[in-house]
Write a structure and sequence with these properties.
By secondary structure, this protein is mainly beta. It has helices at residues 34-41, 80-91, 181-189, 227-239; strands at residues 9-15, 18-24, 50-55, 64-70, 75-76, 98-103, 106-114, 117-121, 147-149, 155-157, 160-163, 167-172, 199-207, 210-217, 221-223, 246-251, 254-260, 267-272, 274-280. The relative contact order is 0.19.
Amino acid sequence: MQSALTHRPYLKMNGAGNEITILDLRSSGLSVLPAEARAIAGNKKTAFDQLMVLFDPKSTGTDAYMRIFNTDGSESSACGNGTRCVSWYVLEHETRDTLKLETAAGLLDCRRDGPLAFTIDMGMPRFHWQDIPLARLQADTKAIDFRFTTSNGKTLSNPACVNMGNPHAIFWVDDVEAYALDVNGPVLEHDPMFPERANISLVAVKSRDHIVQKVWERGAGLTLACGSGACAAAVAAARLGLTDRKVRVTLPGGDLLIDWRETDDHVLMTGPVALEHRGQLEAELFQDMA
């Protein structure tokens, strides 16, 4: 099957290990089909956890409108690690250190802190059960009425739920490696409690300013890092009084610094980016597209 994306340039990057592919379609008039996203994800050179696609700005004062695709072709409204990578790309040859991106979830202010370090204002978390969304009324999303028995007979219960541009469920555990998240993650993602599916996190609190996290990402699977997931976990921990509002989140791919700002309740995420390679999308990528 032919694709209009053939020969379009791309960048392969990562943010704290979160695999990101960037496709700049500004001024092209092109778009991306879910099948095309799946085809790009299916090739070793262009594989991604999230595909960040840039389009012409919709709002005055923004640098681009951004759509975010998961490996299964579904879309997400937020990807903090990918947004840092896009920030590096947009500012690569610029002397300014700030930019503004727009997604379906709203506007994102981005700041360059160093050559390979960026801070993203991820906006305000949402806590109401209908905003996450959950399937039924929950009086307190700090610990919802939910219980799950894992494949190895352990129990996960009463997760905190937060929307950080996409839905997150955070389970508090002593050991993030003890619950076979690769097996149980997809079951939890699709549980009827989460009508739009959910990102599933296991989080161990180590101190007032440090948590350890492992994430099964909705539509992508196990990832080395999840920026919006780190924000959700940090906010959930602070809401429960388990940590302060500034924490270091250790993920398999590295550390992210999260600051749930008291002045306006916005969540700031700071972390690294890395460029892996640049290339062009070859026609062979799309031959078996379905």
